[in-house]
Automatic annotation (TrEMBL):
Residues 6-224 form the Ion transport domain. Its main location: membrane. It comes from Nicator chloris. This is TPC2 protein. Gene3D superfamilies: 1.10.287.70. Residues 1-16 form the signal peptide. GO terms for cellular component: membrane. Pfam families: Ion_trans. It is a multi-pass membrane protein. The chain crosses the membrane at residues 26-44, 65-87, 126-145, 165-182, 194-219. It is found in: Membrane. The keyword Isomerase does not apply. GO terms for molecular function: monoatomic ion channel activity.
Length: 235
């Protein structure tokens, strides 16, 4: 039963590869039949679980309620999408975001659920570090706008360089990963090599300090919650 449940869960998740927009598109009817089959298996597994569980216990379990709601949402979305396709109206399958609920909430997924709880409990405690990082990013972006915004610089593609605040935030956010380094600083560097100090300071503060701090906080808090959870084990 556990193997069958996992198989249909991953089959349901893998349908995203074949539904429009898809990597390997399949006809809508084929993906719909597979999804309905998965939902019927989930409903059957839930019914079997209800048969061997006390009525009050079953309906007080949030996991069972989440699965029932996810099944109803998926069937409703599938019906609406099929109806619209009959009239050649394109639509978005919004119920796809509910599919991981099956992976988390079935009784067979105890270890996955434990990891999910640890992540959920860790998120509030890393919020402060994330807010500090965002504050640093926004301040550096404001400094970049003041330094380069009125110098009429252009990128190698001939686009305006660091003249829009939101574009600057995005470019510097990418620079945290060093994915656009050193291209992002070349127009300023060509104007004056001293401007390289701005980008060096940005990388030191945000890439090396904040990212290391962020990783340390995430790791320590996740390990702490994994220790205190029932059945958790961590040396």
């Amino acid at each position: 039963m556990r193997t069958a449940t996992y198989f249909f869960i991953f089959l349901n998740l893998s349908l995203a590869l074949f539904e429009e927009p898809a990597v390997y598109p399949l006809p809508f009817l084929a993906t719909s039949v597979l999804e309905v089959l998965c939902l019927l298996v989930f409903l059957g597994r839930l019914t079997h679980f209800a048969k061997v569980t006390l009525h009050n216990v079953f309906w007080k379990d949030t996991k069972n309620i989440c699965i029932i709601v996810a099944i109803l949402l998926s069937l409703t979305d599938l019906s609406i999408c099929g109806f619209l396709r009959m009239y050649d109206v394109s639509s978005v399958r919004w119920s796809r975001i509910a599919r991981p609920i099956f992976l988390i909430n079935f009784a067979e997924s105890r270890q996955i659920r434990r990891a999910f709880r640890s992540i959920r409990n860790t998120l509030p405690e890393i919020t402060y570090v994330f807010l500090l990082f965002m504050f640093s990013l926004l301040m550096f972006s404001l400094m970049a706008l003041k330094l380069f915004g009125e110098r009429n610089l252009q990128t190698a593609e001939g686009l305006p360089y660091f003249r829009n605040y939101l574009d600057i935030v995005f470019d510097l956010y990418v620079l945290v990963t060093t994915a656009n380094s050193p291209d992002v600083m070349m127009p300023a560097f060509e104007l004056s090599s001293w401007y390289a100090l701005f980008f060096i300071a940005f990388v030191i503060v945000n890439t090396y300090i904040f990212m290391s701090l962020f990783l340390a906080v995430v790791y320590n808090n996740y390990k702490k919650h994994l220790k205190v959870m029932p059945g958790g084990a961590c040396d």
